């Protein structure tokens, strides 16, 4: 979708204290060979801080940076992948109460790790279709520090990281212009994240740990027995959605200054994202994101904020945000930086 007159007016994030992968190896949490291959040097670990509270803190920064009033907002959209609190409870309304505190819709967007971009796309559509308010608040947060998650071993492709991020979408003005945003699905690949686990009762209700690796092992065993799963190369989907989004933005990849991408281990990052796009590590955010880990729904916004606040992108630069999630789904957005970052005045 090509977007006209839509802006990112404010951005904020929370990245908890980071635990080095060297320390994780010394503690027996992580294998040394895996650490060397991954390229990940540290991982953000949130401890006992609830994910919705991290989202609240990130949202307050984004709203403050936007310069907008709470009455300007017509909707809040919250995304996450891991459990946020009590079963049957609404984290989005908790975040709404502690931020905008207005009687506007508070909506959950569940699109796995693509959730933040999916929420931005939904917020953009809302602002185009509904002129009652000029702004939307988008939040995302996860904390995997729970008993049924082993962040270090749940997958060989990444180490799960905790964080929160938020962005304000506006029809008024902002530090960046949203040029285009799009997502797509390759539903044949949903089995990769299902494996042989039953659909009912859900594993979380029976005490089954989160284990992506055992699901992939099942698919590999099936393949070895001659049962080929109906999947293709996911990098093709990443390349396809990027090509379409750039076309809608009226740009080529050569006109993109930097790319904000997931915090996968280096080999998976290159195979699934960078090589299909023809982008090298230096053009991405590898040196930053390898210090955070795979921050699920938040990581492309973490990358964008890092580039902007450190002055690595300046007015006129275009940034590609690209991500993916279980399902399988892929998406990207193109933004153009309009103003340099200024220090936040606390108070």
UniProtKB/TrEMBL annotation:
GO molecular function, one term: 3-oxoacyl-[acyl-carrier-protein] synthase activity
InterPro entries linked: ACP_syn_III_C, ACP_syn_III_N, Thiolase-like
GO BP of this protein: fatty acid biosynthetic process; secondary metabolite biosynthetic process
One Pfam family it belongs to: ACP_syn_III_C
Domain named Beta-ketoacyl-[acyl-carrier-protein] synthase III N-terminal: residues: 108-180
Keywords: Acyltransferase, Transferase
Enzyme Commission number(s) from the entry: 2.3.1.41
Top-rank lineage group of the source organism: Bacteria
Enzyme class: transferase
UniProt xrefs under Gene3D superfamilies: 3.40.47.10
All copies of domain Beta-ketoacyl-[acyl-carrier-protein] synthase III C-terminal, residue ranges: 246-337
Listed name of the protein: 3-oxoacyl-[acyl-carrier-protein] synthase
The organism of origin for this protein: Frankia alni (strain DSM 45986 / CECT 9034 / ACN14a)
């Amino acid at each position: 979708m090509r977007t006209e007159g839509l802006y990112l007016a404010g951005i904020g994030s929370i990245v908890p204290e980071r635990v080095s992968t060297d320390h994780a190896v010394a503690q027996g949490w992580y294998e040394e060979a895996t650490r060397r291959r991954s390229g990940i040097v540290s991982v953000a670990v949130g401890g006992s801080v609830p994910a919705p509270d991290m989202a609240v803190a990130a949202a307050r920064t984004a709203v403050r940076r936007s310069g907008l009033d709470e009455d300007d907002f017509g909707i809040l959209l919250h995304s996450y992948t891991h459990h946020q609190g009590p079963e049957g409870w609404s984290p989005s309304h908790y975040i709404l109460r502690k931020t905008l505190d207005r009687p506007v819709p508070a909506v959950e967007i569940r699109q796995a790790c693509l959730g933040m971009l999916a929420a931005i796309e939904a917020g953009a559509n809302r602002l185009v279709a509904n002129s009652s308010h000029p702004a939307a608040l988008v939040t995302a947060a996860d904390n995997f520090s729970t008993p049924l998650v082993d962040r270090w071993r749940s997958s060989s492709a990444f180490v799960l990281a905790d964080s929160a991020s938020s962005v304000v979408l506006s029809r008024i003005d902002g530090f960046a212009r949203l040029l285009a945003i799009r997502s797509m699905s390759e539903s044949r690949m949903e089995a990769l994240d299902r494996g042989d686990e039953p659909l009912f009762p859900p594993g979380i209700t029976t005490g089954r740990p989160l284990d992506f690796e055992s699901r992939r092992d099942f698919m590999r065993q099936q393949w070895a027995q001659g049962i080929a799963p109906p999947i293709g190369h996911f990098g093709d989907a990443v390349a396809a959605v990027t090509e379409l989004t750039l076309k809608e933005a009226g740009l080529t990849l050569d006109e993109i200054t930097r790319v904000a991408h997931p915090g996968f281990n280096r080999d998976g990052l290159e195979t699934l994202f960078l090589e299909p796009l023809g982008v090298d590590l230096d053009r991405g955010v590898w040196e930053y994101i390898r210090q955070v880990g795979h921050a699920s729904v938040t990581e492309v916004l973490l990358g964008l904020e890092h580039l902007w606040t450190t002055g690595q992108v300046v007015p006129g630069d275009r940034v590609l945000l690209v991500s993916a999630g279980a399902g399988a789904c892929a998406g990207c957005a193109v933004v153009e930086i309009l103003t340099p970052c200024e220090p936040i005045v606390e108070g």
